[in-house]
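Dear colleagues,

For the upcoming journal club I promised to circulate an example of a predicted protein-ligand complex. I picked one with iron/sulfur cluster because it came up in last month's discussion. The inputs are reproduced below in full, followed by the predicted structure.
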Amino acid sequence: MPRESKRAKRERAIEICRRMGELYPHVESALNFTTPFTMVICVLLSAQTTDVAVNKVTPELFERWPDAEAMSQADPAEIAEVIRSIGFYRSKSAHCVEAARMIVADFGGEVPHTMEELTRLPGVGRKTANIVLNKAFGIVDGIAVDTHVFRLATRWRLTNKPTPLQAEQDLLDILPQELWGPVNEQWIHFGRDTCRAQRPLCGACPLADICPSVGKADGNPKPKARRRASSRRS
Ligand code: SF4
């Protein structure tokens, strides 16, 4: 692909978002949550784990500790027992209790709704905070860049940065804010359905005419960068 001007890249990125909107007009979070607090816990638990696995443990979890007040008094070892089928359950159970305690102590029991406050919570990084702001409060302050979004943004050469955090800044720079909201969920769906990590379905891809990685086995981020990115916490 010849060198692309920033303007051309921006137009291509906007066109990608337009087509994603056509493909996935009604995407919803697969996580089962009912309140901002349960959303925080769900997203916190979902790091490096599937949404399906999280949904299996949360019914008992939220029945026993339904809000910040209740979970702030829980024993992390008891929570660990309930969530032990998901990855990193020990550190996640500690984060659940620590986050609940901070919500009670510093925010009157209510989940805060600014990026700055949310990222003070243990276990909550920008990705988690972006999802919570967007889904629980309807606030779009950034783009949640997980491994799928990072992989696609890299394949589409919208970023060449080595970490999701840096890639988010490139996406925020190139996309108008009104397009940020659905990026995370639409791109995750597309990354699972079509632009898979291994053997992407380029032959049936609706982006083939505007994708710089079409038909290339090397469309993935370089292994070193991907390893570093996937080892980052949410
Ligand atoms: S053409 Fe291939 S690499 Fe490009 S977005 Fe489609 S599936 Fe992914």
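Two points we might discuss: The chain has two domains: 6-27+144-230, 36-137. Residues 219-234 have pLDDT under 50 and may be disordered.

See you all on Thursday,
B. R.
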